[in-house]
Amino acid sequence: MRLRFYGFLAALLASGTIGVTSGLRAAEPPQAVKPAITDEATAALQQMSKTLLSKDLSFKAETIRVYQDAHGQPLHIFHTMKVVARRPDRLAINVTGDDGSTKVLYDGKTVSVLSVDKNKYASLAAQGGIQVAVDELMDKVGHDFPLVDFFSDAPDKAFLSGVTTGSQVGTAMVGGTECRHLFFSQQAGVELELWLDKTEQALPRRLIVTYRLLPGQPNFVALFSDWDFKGQPADSAFVFQPPAGATKIDLSQAAAAVPGQGGSK
Question: Model's pTM, two decimal places?
Answer without folding.
Answer: 0.83
